[in-house]
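task queued by scheduler; priority normal; single chain, no ligands, no partner chains; default sampling; output format set to C-alpha cells
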Amino acid sequence: MIERHITHVSPRKRDVAYDPLAQQAALPVQVHYVDGTTVDTLLILAPGEVELFRTQADQAIAKRTAAGVTA
C-alpha cells in the first residue's frame, strides 16, 4: 500500500448540502497531497460540528480583521 501524506484540505466553491433525516451537513472539500495530487470529497458534519466550524471560522475572520488584512 502506498502512503499518501495530506498537506491540507480546502473548501470547494460549491453549495453545502444538508440532510434533515441524518441531521448532517455535507461540505465539499478538496484534499491536497504532498505529491501535488488532489481528491474531491465531502466533509460530513453533525449539528454540533457545524456550530464548532462556524465558531472557528468567525474567530479566523476576526483575527484577520484585527491584523488589518483586507480582501
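post-processing summary
- Strands lie at 6-11, 17-19, 24-33, 38-45.
- The domain at 6-66 is CATH 3.10.450 (Nuclear Transport Factor 2; Chain: A,).
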